[in-house]
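**User:** You know discrete backbone vocabularies at least as well as I do. Would you mind producing a protein record, from residues through to fold? Write it directly below this note and I will take it from there.

**Assistant:**
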Amino acid sequence: MLTQIIAHRGSKGTCPENTLPAFAAALADGADGIETDVHLSKDGQLIIIHDEKVDRTTDGKGRIIDLTLRDLKRLDAGVKFAPVYAGTRIPTLDEVVQLLIKANFTGIFNLELKTNKIHYDGIEAMVADYFNHHQVPFKLVYSSFYPKSIERLHALQPEAEFDSLFETKFKTARRLHAEHIIIGYHPDIRWVRRHWLLLPKVQLRPWTVNTERDMRFCYRHQFAGLITDYPGLAHRLRLKMQGG
């Protein structure tokens, strides 16, 4: 069984994270899946970015929830990473989906709802409505650090796959698995290294697997997948260890 390579915020290690260039690079690097994050703007648009604020990754300041799509599109999401990416914009969910459709992507699209710090009102229903009205060729996988988002979205879109994200505690993940809401765990690789022998037989896709040592660990134990900032490196190493 090949361990799936999931590109964390696209090819985050080589491109500005959560941008169209990062997702395109991940596909070119042979990633089996894309992992990304969704927030809600002031005017109710589904925005692809990791942080609750734009400060770290753009030339702007402020919270996503306080900015409109027009405000967000004025920001440069690439220049802080490297001058060559100057002018790169924050994408919407639809822009990322359309990029994947045009690329004939049929792998995993792992969408994390960033609701653990700001509980965006109605974001679960908006995400479900979007995918209910857009036919996509790829496999939808939802995750969140906020269990209520997983439960709400599962009620709205039960045909999708759901997985629990966690760093150190997996009590809630065990409950959701027992209730057949989730089918797998997305834990911190550091936690996995300490506890994986004690885990129940579940689908494991650890994050963020960026070193050759950690990649080899995942491949050796044939985890279902790994989530990495460096899909190109992960792909080259998988060819050596798993042959594909």
Q: What stands out?
A: The longest strand covers residues 33-40.
